[in-house]
Amino acid sequence: MAVIEKVKLPGPASWLLNWSRKYSLWMMQFGLACCGIEMGAAIASKFDIIRFGVIPFPASPRQADLLVVAGTVTDKMAAPIKRVYDQMPEPKYVISMGSCANCGGPYWDSYAVTKGVDQIIPVDVYVPGCPPRPEALLQGVIRLQQKISGENPSEKWLGHTTPIPVIPEPGLAGGV
Amino acid sequence: MFDITLATWQILVIKIIVILTVVPVGALVGGYAEHKVMAHLQHRLGPMYPGGFHGWATTLADGIKFLYKEDIIPAAADRKVFSLAPAAIMVPIIMTYLVIPIDRALIVEDLDVGIFYLLAVGSLSTIGLLMAGWSSANKYALIGALRSAAQLIAYELPIVLAAVVVAMLAGSLSLIDIVETQNWPFAIWPPGIGFIAFLLFTVGAVAEMTRVPFDMPVAESEIITGPFTEYSGMRYIFAHMFAEMGHMVAFGGIGATLFLGGYQPIVPIPFLDFIPGVIWFSAKTMFMIFLFLWIRPTFPRVREDQLQKFAWKFLIPVGLALVLVTGAWVLYV
Amino acid sequence: MAVDEHRAPRTTESDDARRLVKARRPGFGIGLLKGMAVTLKHLFKHNTVIQYPDEKQDLSSRTRGVIALKEENCTVCMLCARECPDWCIYIDSHKETLAPKREGGRPRKRNILDRFAIDYALCMYCGICVEVCPYDALFWSREFEYAEYDIRELTHEKEKLSDWMASVLPPPALEEGAEYPGSPTRAPEVADGAAAPVKPVQAEASDAAAGTPERRGAQAAPLGTGGRPADAGAPKEAKPDVGPVPGRQAEAAPAPEGAEPAAAEAPPVQEEEQQAAPSQEQAPGPEPTAEDHAGPGGRTETASPEVLGIQMGAEPASPSPRESTETPSPEVLGIQMGGGPAPSPGAGEDAVGAPEEAETRTPQEGPDPEEVARLQETPGPNVEVPNEEPKPTALDPTEDPKEVYEAVLSDQLAKGSSPEVAEARAKVARVKAERGIARNPGVATKEDS
Ligand code: SF4
Ligand code: SF4
Ligand code: SF4
């Protein structure tokens, strides 16, 4: 890691690193409420998130690259989320799924809900919906993959301080 | 064929290089096969986009990514043991590849006591698992390590008994001899005996690899990832992914050698001889691997006590009885 | 349970126990093999995966994907923003004074929409804004692909919301046998290129039964409106514009309707029971009196006559309440509750889309033709349904609509919008030009203008 931080990587190496991160997103599932059901649906047969190389197997955050926070982040659950995020090794990504995880959603006025998971951990992609369709999560994954392929790996290791790369939107229909 | 004479050390180097490439490549292919077969058994597609064509590069991407992922060693961990454990798991698995005959001449080392060596080396990786679990400073890792030790001991015995049956039938401990004796594969010929031994071996192998339904040591709903809970990055991929897949390929090869006739044709019909032994061996290995993959999405995980009960109260008595029956068969038939 | 025993008297507990014992008998691994066979079978079956970016599901037209704004319909009434439970709709507007239409008239004031934004990060997709909008300016679109890297980008302004208008589908066709509310004889006008819904077969039949082809609109209204609990289930298109308040209606409605239509085939006593039942079971009506009297779900309770009257949109038909011991069938409820034709959508020519649902009713159960004819001659008081269609103030066209259309289209295409989006924007611009609405007031340099 240290080497990558110091040395300027040649283009193909950067590409390879980005490519491998893009298609090997081991996904830590953090289903907290109704959105967790849709996340499950996205993993199951009909939508099959593994098609994108998002592997929903790891049970330990130590092996995960992607944290999907799906559902209502209560204040009580905020600490475990932060902890799981801290336990994940770099490079790591977070998808916030659903209005609750985005910014509180229906519980915008609740005394017990964290208004958005981005208050405690950095979020890479926000998937809107209440709940988002399983395809919407898949589109979020596609957006994340686009973001990853535009990343500069040597900057990435310096933390989440790098500006978000400008990637042309695929248009309304999305797509890879 | 080739008139090249090589010094012993040169041959050794070549063998080492071959084995060291075969194992990771086998693991990558096995991982891909696992994704795809499991997906299709579950009405899914499995990886489709990585690499373009049916996601062929998905395990490759995994491999590259894990190589440069942050490597975390917990503060409370026993650093030396923690770092050595993946090697202790990996090396015995690589060592099993040494004696599996791929063809009559294609074997790294034809030991006279091939079976004995296989069984001895096969149980070594338990030590690695225990090391991993103990050094992680994590209660789940420790529980997982103890579970896997208990399980590997329990299921080593059915495998040993099945191998004893094979050795008795073949009258030899050398794997080449065992293959050569199998005009009919042992799984078919001594009717019943070989097949039951084959089943014993398969069940034991699935348990040794800690795969579903015997994956209590890594049961993610109970103890996260068992001994590998704290492993990340490169160590994880060696300790778990390569080890599991390498193990699977190794057991596929062993099963094919011991019970399916190795590089021999599946039935003793002369015109089948034109197919090279390598192909027979690979086909049989793939069949065994498919069997392992097929079992995984079919059955639910068993409970820890059921797991132990099944081994000690059912598989081992059956194995012992089988040894007696085989003795009678060898003596009187 | 009683029925089950009657049909299969031999199913006893011991039978179950025996089956259980049989299931638990050791199967010597046959069960495991069966399980393996099941998974193997699935290996060769066609899989069910929808390969999302390459292959898309045909979602229902009612899918709650995103809310699209038909900008020219919005009158900045702020209802949506006030009703939104999340307060995630942001509306800014300003007033403009317009020259009087005629010489010497009063100058008019109009609200011009400056900003209409929905924060989709916060929106809970409840659809209240769509329901509540009285001018059909908000629609559900099926689009769901708008995940963003930054949460601020999830607040979409009216330009984006109008773009989504292009993907709004017409409401789905009516079910077989359904009837258009208020106009059984004629399919409603279909605006905005909405697909014509399937004409229900039942429409003619019920019409024949009713015998009056012209019973639509204001005259026949009282029959139905009183009983329908605040039009809760009605689609937004069928919303009566300023629908008569059910309670008030009930007080003032002409005497004898209500139960009368069903009299043709139902004996009075039975009818009485049927009448009582819905008021008790199905009285989610808005009137507090109804709930006070009927109570929630008292099936065998006696309903007071007033309750009946209020529920049925009629005066009490019979003074003697009876116990209802029988559950009325849904059709009967249909007669009672929605016996008359529902009020016309009122939007008339400009009705957007087709009604989504209508009261189902079999032909012979239609209202009494005589009754309807009488009502048409002498409509009761308070039945005038305001038929004025809501639309933005129409002024004289300021620009040539066609020219504007072309200009905006080419402008948008040049800017790189997709053809669909460009066309949608051009259409919006044309409509505005036709109606003389200034395009993008205030912001002269923005797109569209
Ligand atoms: S966003 Fe909606 S669906 Fe998702 S967890 Fe919150 S309330 Fe449930
Ligand atoms: S759907 Fe509900 S939450 Fe969303 S904007 Fe409309 S009223 Fe507000
Ligand atoms: S969208 Fe409808 S409810 Fe909202 S301000 Fe416009 S007209 Fe009123």
Describe this structure in words.
By secondary structure, chain A is of the alpha/beta class. Chain A has seven helices and five strands, in the order H-H-E-H-E-E-H-E-H-E-H-H. In chain A, strands 2-1-3-4-5 form a five-stranded parallel sheet. Mean pLDDT of chain A is 80; it is low at 160-176. Chain B is an all-alpha fold and 333 residues long. Chain B has one domain (8-332). Chain B is 66% helix and 0% strand. Chain B has helices at 8-41, 58-68, 79-96, 114-122, 125-135, 139-170, 175-181, 193-208, 220-223, 233-259, 277-298, 304-332. Chain B is globular. The mean pLDDT of chain B is 84. In chain C, helix 9 (246-252) packs across helix 12 and helix 15 (401-415) runs antiparallel to helix 16. Chain C is mainly alpha-helical. The longest helix of chain C has 17 residues, at 419-435. The termini of chain C are far apart. Chains A and C meet through helix 5, strand 5 and helix 6 of A and loops of C. Bound molecules: iron/sulfur cluster (3 copies). One iron/sulfur cluster binds next to helix 4 of chain C.
Uncertain segments of chain A of ≥5 residues (pLDDT<50)?
A: 160-176
Poorly predicted runs of 5 or more residues of chain C: 1-5, 186-364, 442-449
**Average predicted local confidence, pLDDT of chain A:** 80
Would you list the SSEs of chain C in sequence order as H and E?
A: HHHEHEEHEEHHHHHHHHHHH
Query: How many β-strand runs of chain C?
Result: 5
If strands are numbered along the chain, what order do they take across the biggest sheet of chain C?
2-3-5
Radius of gyration of chain C: 28 Å
Distance from first to last alpha carbon of chain A: 29 Å
Question: Percent helix among the residues of chain A?
Answer: 25-40%
Query: What's the rounded overall pLDDT mean of chain C?
Result: 63
Shape of chain A: globular
Number of helices of chain C: 16
Quote the beta fraction of chain C: 5-15%
Quaternary organisation of the protein chains? heterotrimer
The tally of strands of chain A reads 5
Q: Going across the major beta sheet of chain A, what is the strand order?
A: 2-1-3-4-5
What topology emerges from the helices and strands here?
The complex is a heterotrimer of chains A (176), B (333) and C (449).
Chain A: H1 2-6, H2 11-22, E1 25-31, H3 34-43, E2 54-55, E3 66-70, H4 75-87, E4 93-97, H5 98-103, E5 125-127, H6 134-149, H7 153-156
Parallel strand pairs in A: 1-2, 1-3, 3-4, 4-5
Helix pairs in contact in A: 2-6, 3-6
Chain B: H1 8-41, H2 58-68, H3 79-96, H4 114-122, H5 125-135, H6 139-170, H7 175-181, H8 193-208, H9 220-223, H10 233-259, H11 277-298, H12 304-332
Chain C: H1 2-7, H2 13-24, H3 30-44, E1 66-69, H4 79-83, E2 89-98, E3 108-119, H5 128-132, E4 138-141, E5 155-156, H6 158-165, H7 202-210, H8 221-225, H9 246-252, H10 268-281, H11 288-294, H12 305-312, H13 330-338, H14 369-377, H15 401-415, H16 419-435
Antiparallel strand pairs in C: 1-4, 2-3, 3-5
Helix pairs in contact in C: 9-12, 11-12, 15-16
The structure holds iron/sulfur cluster (3 copies).
One iron/sulfur cluster (SF4) is lined by residues 67, 84-86, 88-89, 118, 123-129 of chain C.
